[in-house]
Amino acid sequence: MTNVFDDSDGQFVAVVNTENQHSLWPTALDVPGGWTVVHGPDTRQNCVDYIENHWTDMRPASLIRESAGR
After folding, report:
1. CA 55 vs CA 2, 4, 35, 65: distances in Å
2. Which residues, given as ranges, of the chain have pLDDT below 70?
3. Contact by Cβ (8 Å): 12, 47
4. Do 16 and 22 contact (CB within 8 A), yes or no?
5. Rounded to whole angstroms, how far apart are CA atoms 26 and 11?
6. What topology does CATH give the domain 9-41?
7. CA R_g for the chain
8. Domain limits of the chain?
């Protein structure tokens, strides 16, 4: 059985949580609570490209806010 996250022919979405962390998610699965679709459905590669272009700071949003307040 193939892992649905590795299916290069599958349909995916890019999702983001409240900490601005991004993830690739297959459309065959329900998006987990606390995550919001920000791109797609689209190809796996296009979703990966979206994530790479939009998630440029890997720090959680709360840490970014805390650092800015210092």
Report:
1. 27, 22, 15, 16
2. 1
3. yes
4. yes
5. 6
6. Rubredoxin-like (3.90.820)
7. 14
8. 9-41
